[in-house]
Amino acid sequence: MSGLKNIDLNLLKVFLTLMEEQNVSRAAEALSVSQPAVSGMLNRLRQNLNDPLFVRSQRGIVPTVRAQALAGPVRRILDELDTALQPDDFDPQKVSMTLNVAVTDYSLNTVITPLLPRFRELAPELKIACHWLNESTLAEKMERGELDLALVTPETTPLDLKSRLLFEEHYVWVMRQAHPLAEAAPDVTTFCQAGHAIVSYNGGAFSGITDEKLRELGLSRNVVLSVPGFFVLLDMVRTSDLFAVVPARIARQVPDLKVLPLPVDVPGFAKYLVWHGRTHHSPVHGWIREAFRL
Q: Which residue among 39, 65, 85 closes a domain?
């Protein structure tokens, strides 16, 4: 108990800010206090918890194993306290917090990017930290308070998380405007003529749902390039003679592409916003979720 009795909420807030910034100077700036003040509060935490919590690195500081273990519970405690003290009718202009969102490159560009001006206008003090989505750790990180929201498909949504449909998406066929086959008939024969590039988030895959649908027709395509993200893929397509099958929303964001309907019936997907029950009744988080409407 000696480690708890001398720890106040300000120390916990400093701890979380240091976890986020991993730099004493940046943490001091984020907290609007002096660097010596942050160093002093960190020393108090170290004494009370009998652990260095952070050690120096070339780029700043890195958390110890103990600090990493404490981060989730501390964040959850402060979130729950903030929710309990939040008035039912609050002003978004005064919301000052960091929103942690798990994304893919697709959802970063089709959801976060178009919504950013809205958040900057309505909640200028809100910070948004985007993290690459890891499906295997999503539920655990949400439970620990390391993530507040995630942008996922239903297939990757843990059952114990709350969710809301944002939109449904379909796939299109893209090539560069000056492709040698740009004026050919946009049919399955043309589709299978050129080399293809695909996205493989886990790396190294050379087939997907499009190939399954082609096999049902007794056809195949020649996939020659596999990359880990859609915008890298589209840049490759824009500067080569490769074809690709991509979500329509991102195809519209890249210039110099010819966009065609798919000559095979490939099912699209739905994009969902998901969150943990710990923030479900929070007025702040409720307002943020409502703002996630496209």
A: 85
